[in-house]
Predict the structure.
Amino acid sequence: MLSHALWAGLGLSVYLGVAFFGLLVFNPEIWISDYPPDIRRAWGPQSPQARAQKWAFAVPIFGLTLAYVIVATMQAARLSGGNPAFLDVVMHTFVMLSVFNLLDLLILDWLIFVRFTPGFAVLPGTEGFEGYDDYRFHFNAFLKGTAGILVASLLVGAISLLF
């Protein structure tokens, strides 16, 4: 199941990485709540247009992500003989989502956002802000994501007991 979880996590990472990167190129303000504090303060509140765009994209992206997790978990269940233990489902989900969380940190956050900081990711009027070089901010978000992944994995495990 570990191998399956790693491959499923890689597939999820490609899908979400392309989606998130595409949204960053489309309108970086969609991600304002994920920018470092100094940039958020300087930018101010998210515009109604960016808020609407965020929700318009978030719903299908989240829906497809949820479907992907369910299908991957069902595939893993078949690999384990059709009735995996609660802990197996929790660990599979945790590993799968953690692969994305780690690649998000290393590639999207640290490599693209911090190291290269492409012009399309820089909000107008925030050029040169310290937040664009803040590795720690993104690492802290990674840690928060890990805690969220643990909760989500426990929920998926609990739901799997019902079916």
About this structure: The chain has one domain: 2-162. Residues 28 and 122 are 8 Å apart (CA to CA). The first helix runs from residue 2 to 26.
